[in-house]
Design a protein that fits this description.
Elements (H helix, E strand, L loop, with lengths): L1 E9 L3 E10 L2 E11 L9 H16 L8 E5 L6 H4 E4 L2 E4 L15 E9 L12 E6 L5 H13 L3 E7 L4 H6 L7 E2 L13 E6 L12 H8 L3 H13 L5 E5 L8 E4 L3 E6 L4 E5 L4 H9 L4 E6 L4 H17 L7 E15 L8 E14 L3 H14 L2 E6 L1 H9 L9 E6 L3 E7 L5 E7 L2 H11 L5 H9 L2 E4 L4 E4 L4 E3 L12 E4 L4 E3 L6 H27 L10 E5 L8 H10 L4 E4 L11 H16 L1
Parallel strand pairs: 1-4, 4-19, 7-8, 8-9, 9-10, 20-28, 28-29
Antiparallel strand pairs: 1-2, 2-3, 5-18, 6-13, 7-11, 11-12, 14-15, 14-16, 17-18, 20-21, 21-22, 23-24, 23-26, 24-25, 26-27
């Protein structure tokens, strides 16, 4: 009996389809397609993406929708990618106007301390024996500003530094008779409190500031007591490595500090087992505590803390999407990794950040099967084609992975997607052990986005997927491995001197001040912390003894197996256990893609034969 089947794999980031013709025991794959997943995996919003993928696959196969006899969906467990992941740390909110700034081209050099005053008021000051810092908004011309400062100086008014809104620092400095340190490009200059004590420091080219990046230097300038010195330590830390900075002292009583604790995680295990661990103990201790739980039933965060807010928000969001009660939604797995988190400094003039230690969490949500069944029902109603839920993702992936040339049972697959890492071990008998863990590509993107302080997930995704280079001239670029690449065509002018992301057909310059080596290390470290950690965690779960030396073949599938670094990292790590590891080539043609969709079709064929 001839039938046409469609396997549909709904992933966190992408939805894949495989269409095949079944003729008795013979099977011929006609087409495959990949599109971006619409909505959160396992929810009714997925239908639009599935329909689009099927339309493209049907067109490639040169058949009609009506020709499809059965659509098989994966048993998609909802994993809320972005919402399930968060960077948890202690938040310090400081209502202070002690701020720093680091433009590319400050003027002059040295340290100046004085009272802030608007440039057009500077010649009207009454206390000429006082030192002053000129505040220069954008509506003043640099030539007039320089003339005004020179005149004030000739009248005996002591001006020790300047803060400028426009990029005029060097232009003003070149016209001054008495040279002073000038910090420019202060976009929010209206935030600067006037008639307050301030300090401006500019270092020589190639050097960094010393006084304002030292808490005791700030304490000396502003005559702070020990408690106030503790409060401004965050400001000093944020200014370390800067070439220039501005710090303004607010009056006593204006500094208010409030802390939102990072909080504790409470782990609920089988047989009323309960364990707790603080976020401040770090990722290693959190995962060690998790390892002591025999069977994880649920996870909660401490009420009124950052981690409590994350877990509660996660449950609320999924409850709204599925129509279930938040109490019916549990956390079935989580991954914690140490991370560096940019904390904005309240009152900052130009978005200054302090990089603090924290913990990144990826959590997997467990619900009943209603959401996926709802997707199947909606799809069946819309297309008029029979739809069934095929099976657990990891088991379907292993069916697809076995079509890779050079593999045999017993075999382990690692399915590395956007939100989760799945592993499955198939014995020679056909018995399968599988697990479904939180944390994959989306978590790596989040770490890169945070640790480079990009605030741009699309750019972080590009950095994750592509190698780097630095354009040194119009015709040559240094690659991240140190080699030089020469081009017959000139590189775009806007990339000159910049670190760039090297995509296939374009170069994306990065605005960050981080060096190419630093960006590369952050990218690779994020991948190791998530993928290597999760791969070992997953393999130890599916191997009954936990001894990885009993394994022979590990095949990597999923979108992240296409990454230019991750398979090599895992091959190197698993090679320590004598394991043959590499990325799959599904059906000998598709590479690591389409494993689950292919497996859904193959599993259906075997089911038909057994009937």
């Amino acid at each position: 009996m001839k039938r046409i089947l469609a396997g549909v794999d709904i992933g966190n980031s992408s939805t894949e389809v495989a269409i095949a013709r079944l003729d008795g025991n013979d099977i011929k794959f006609l087409s495959q397609c990949l599109v971006r997943t619409t909505g959160i995996k396992g929810t009714s919003e997925n239908v639009e993406g599935i329909r689009r993928a099927l339309q493209e696959a049907v067109k490639k196969a040169d058949i009609e929708f009506e020709d499809i006899d059965l659509i098989r969906l994966n048993d998609a467990v909802p994993v809320i990618g972005d919402l399930a992941m968060d960077l948890i740390s202690e938040t310090i909110i400081t209502e202070s106007s002690m701020v720093g700034h680091n433009p590319d081209t400050p003027g002059g050099a040295g340290l100046g301390v004085g009272i802030t005053v608007l440039i057009d008021q500077i010649r009207k000051v009454e206390q000429k024996e006082q030192d002053y810092i000129a505040v220069i908004p954008k509506y003043f011309d640099y030539a007039w500003v320089a003339h005004c400062l020179n005149q004030a100086e000739s009248e005996g008014i002591s001006i020790t530094g300047a803060v400028v809104q426009k990029d005029d620092g060097v232009l003003i400095h070149n016209r001054l008779k008495k040279k002073i340190p000038i910090v420019d490009e202060v976009a929010l200059i209206e935030k600067i409190p006037l008639w307050k004590l301030a300090a401006v420091e500019v270092a020589l080219p190639g050097h960094v500031i010393r006084t304002l990046s030292n808490p005791y230097g700030l304490s000396t300038i502003f005559q702070l007591d020990p408690d106030e010195t503790i409060q401004i330590a965050l400001i000093a830390k944020a200014l370390v490595g800067n070439r220039s900075a501005v710090v303004i002292r607010t009056p006593k009583g204006e500094v208010v500090e409030r802390k939102i604790e990072a909080g504790k995680i409470f782990l609920k295990g089988a047989n009323t087992q309960k364990l707790e661990v603080s976020i401040n103990d770090g990722a290693e201790e959190i995962m060690n505590t998790y390892g002591k739980v025999e069977t994880l039933i649920d996870v909660y965060g401490e009420t009124g803390t950052n981690v409590g807010g994350m877990f509660n928000g996660l449950r609320q969001d999924l409850a709204q999407l599925t129509g279930q009660s938040p109490d019916d939604i549990t956390i079935s797995d989580f991954l914690a990794v140490d991370a560096v988190i940019p904390n904005s400094i309240t009152g900052a003039m130009a978005g200054e950040l302090s990089m603090e230690s924290g913990v990144a969490l990826a959590s997997m949500v467990k619900t009943d099967k209603v959401p996926v069944q709802k997707v199947a029902s909606l799809l069946e109603k819309e297309l008029g084609i029979e739809v069934e839920i095929g099976g657990v993702e990891a088991e379907m992936a292993i069916c697809g992975a076995l079509t890779t040339p050079g593999t045999r049972k017993p075999i382990v697959i690692l399915d590395m997607g956007g939100g989760s890492t799945d592993a499955a071990l198939m014995y020679e008998s056909g018995k399968i052990n599988s697990c479904h863990l939180a944390g994959a590509g989306s978590m790596v993107t989040m770490l890169i986005n945070s640790e480079l302080a990009l605030d741009d997930k699309e750019l972080a995704e590009k950095i994750k997927r592509n190698p780097l280079g630095k354009v040194l001239s119009l015709f040559h670029m240094q690659l991240e491995d140190g080699t030089m690449l020469f081009s017959e065509k000139p590189y775009p002018p806007h990339t000159f001197g910049k670190v760039v992301v090297r995509e296939e057909d374009e170069l994306t310059p990065l605005a960050t001040k981080a060096t190419m080596d630093k960006i590369r290390e952050i990218r690779r470290s994020a991948k190791r912390r998530v993928f290597v950690t999760n791969a070992l965690r997953a393999l130890k779960r599916v191997v009954p003894t936990g001894n990885l030396k009993h394994l022979s073949f590990v095949v990597m599938v999923g979108g992240s197996a296409l990454d230019f670094e991750i398979p090599q990292m895992l091959t190197e790590e698993l090679g320590k256990y004598g394991i043959v590891a590499g990325f799959a080539n599904i059906r000998g043609t598709e590479g690591p893609r389409n494993a689950v969709a292919t497996g859904l079709v193959l599993a259906s064929v075997r089911h038909e034969v057994l009937k």
